[in-house]
């Protein structure tokens, strides 16, 4: 596909959240979005494979426009099954994967809150980035992830204080109404729940992720960020 053809197909799928770069050209610049997701996909893939060098078969949840999908799938020896809940995002991700000529990627439309994970098969590692704070039962999502993979690369928000939270399912939860600045990046559910830090770690442990290596953390009184490599058991 030449640059003109890519440009034409990119325009058909506007507005994009992030766009992408291919062959030295930046596509989807100037779309009508006013919010850019900040994570650099190449940097995330580097950190992902540093934590999980053995990752071959990868499940990605909440793929958006396929930026992380491509960064992961460009690594030799990998295959990626990427799930995305919005058809418009999925169509953009399909174009990006096609442009990069990747044949080791499968993209599927799916709501991770309703998905039967048992039908997906087994994976080495799951990438769950920017998704866990968009669901009603984050602990169920973690259990489902643990049912299909031994490793989890998690990037999420958690709630910074335990005060005033509700108790649900044994966890402390902050009830949150979806309000991500970019509508295309919001959860499919409107009312979702954030865990506080102790509950996040308890939910990981209850799901079977007994080893949690914190790779990055930004703590505040309210919205906190954490990136962690989680393993069901330590293989030495
Ligand atoms: C904040 S974006 C994160 C995108 C990307 N993973 C990242 O870290 O940059 C959340 C993505 O998850 C998708 N999503 C939200 N809720 C979902 C659900 N229940 N099932 C599947 N995808 C969902 C959104 O459509 C969006 O593409």
UniProtKB/TrEMBL annotation:
Top EC class for this record: transferase
Record keyword Transferase present: yes
InterPro entries per record: Methyltransf_11 (IPR013216), SAM-dependent_MTases_sf (IPR029063)
SUPFAM superfamilies: S-adenosyl-L-methionine-dependent methyltransferases
Domain of life: Bacteria
Keyword Ion transport: no
Methyltransferase type domain segment(s): 59-148
This protein's name: Class I SAM-dependent methyltransferase
Biological source species: Nonomuraea purpurea
Classification lineage: Bacteria, Bacillati, Actinomycetota, Actinomycetes, Streptosporangiales
């Amino acid at each position: 596909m030449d640059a003109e053809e890519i440009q034409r197909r990119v325009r058909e799928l506007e507005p994009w959240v992030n766009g992408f770069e291919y062959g030295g050209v930046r596509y989807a610049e100037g779309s009508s979005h006013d919010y850019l997701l900040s994570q650099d996909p190449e940097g995330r893939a580097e950190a992902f494979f540093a934590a999980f060098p053995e990752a071959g078969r990868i499940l990605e949840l909440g793929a958006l426009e396929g930026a992380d999908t491509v960064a992961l799938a460009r690594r030799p020896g990998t295959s990626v099954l990427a799930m995305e809940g919005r058809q418009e995002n999925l169509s953009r991700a399909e174009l990006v994967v096609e442009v990069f000529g990747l044949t080791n990627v499968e993209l599927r439309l799916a709501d991770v809150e309703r998905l039967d994970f048992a039908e997906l098969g087994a994976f080495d590692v799951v990438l769950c980035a920017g998704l866990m704070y968009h669901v009603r039962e984050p602990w169920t999502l973690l259990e489902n992830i643990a049912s299909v993979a031994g490793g989890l690369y998690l990037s999420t928000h958690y709630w910074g204080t335990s005060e005033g939270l509700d108790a649900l399912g044994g966890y402390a939860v902050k009830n949150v109404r979806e309000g991500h600045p970019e509508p295309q990046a919001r959860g499919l559910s409107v009312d979702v729940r954030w865990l506080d830090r102790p509950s996040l770690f308890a939910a990981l442990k209850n799901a079977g992720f007994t080893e949690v290596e914190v790779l990055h953390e930004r703590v505040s009184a309210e919205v906190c960020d954490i990136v962690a490599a989680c393993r069901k058991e330590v293989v030495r």
